[in-house]
Amino acid sequence: MSSEIKVILKEIGLPKDTVRRAAIVCYESEINIVSYAKKGQIVLHADDRSVEIEAKDEGTGIPDIELAMKEGYSTATAQVREMGFGAGMGLSNMKRYADDFFISSEVGVGTYVKMVVFNLDLKLHPDHPQWVETYT
User: Fold this and answer.
1) What does CATH list as the number for 2-135?
2) Model's pTM, two decimal places?
3) Rounded to the nearest 10 degrees, what angle do helices 16-36 and 2-11 cross at?
């Protein structure tokens, strides 16, 4: 999915840094869905100003989001770790590379993460008139 998103974002002409950061947050979302969920979905919304990635899964959920956000904290199984994943960097990387980050989770139900990566070449931020018109 992250590879496909990377191609789409390049095709619409977003800058390399925006594409790279969006691909990272998408990749980390994919790994978490595969590692912890029964099923999941990633949805992309993109235009020349920003990339929004929403990841929703049905799985174990996260009992302590604050703890899970700490670098190095992981609940990965031995099987996931044997495959080279589960280092406890996924959520913190999502937050680090996204300009806007939201997470909610319910134990036994699943997790929802929304990440927005802005096209920083446009220098848009919430005070900019285009932002208000586009995202209210």
Assistant:
1) 3.30.565.10
2) 0.81
3) 160
